């Protein structure tokens, strides 16, 4: 039996959360400008990429060797950079934490289950050791919005009872 993406992630330790973007040097001082079409979880031996599915408000999860420069920035003169969000999510810059639970929503029209390769998600919440959280919402117009503890429940509450063009997704919980 092959491991799911979540099983593989559950055996790893997350060292950092990185948001790609570029350095804007046009003003008085350089400014990091996020380009959150993807978010990376840094592991000891690679990265997990959460990447948006264009125009669908969904994201997929995959393992990659290195963060890639977003396609929209390839032809630009801007300097590619990664913004570390580890201090926001993993308590300090020296933490390396295991994922202890993943909650999320799989779209109703999905043909694959949670944790399987190529599954699309409407949102994901990662709970780490010591009670730290990372929430990823691909429904944000500019890409993936990240948040912390409580963001998953707030999003579900906000969307409860709202009429949508799509059928409501299927919530799931994964634990190692």
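-> sequence recovered:
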């Amino acid at each position: 039996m092959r491991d799911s993406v979540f099983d593989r992630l559950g055996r790893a330790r997350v060292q950092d959360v990185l948001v790609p973007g570029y350095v804007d040097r046009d003003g008085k001082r350089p400014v990091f400008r996020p380009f959150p079409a993807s978010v990376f979880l840094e592991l000891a031996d690679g990265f997990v990429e959460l990447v948006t599915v264009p125009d669908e408000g969904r994201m997929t999860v995959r393992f990659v060797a290195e963060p890639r420069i977003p396609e929209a920035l390839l032809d630009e003169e801007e300097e590619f950079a990664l913004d570390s969000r580890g201090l926001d999510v993993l308590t300090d810059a020296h933490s390396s934490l295991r994922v202890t639970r993943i909650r999320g929503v799989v779209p109703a029209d999905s043909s694959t289950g949670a944790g399987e390769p190529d599954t699309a998600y409407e949102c994901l919440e990662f709970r780490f050791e010591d009670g730290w959280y990372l929430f990823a919402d691909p429904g944000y117009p500019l890409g993936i919005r990240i948040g912390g503890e409580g963001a998953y429940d707030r999003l579900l509450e906000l969307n409860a009872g709202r009429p949508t063009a799509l059928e409501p997704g299927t919530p799931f919980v994964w634990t190692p």
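The longest helix spans residues 151-159.
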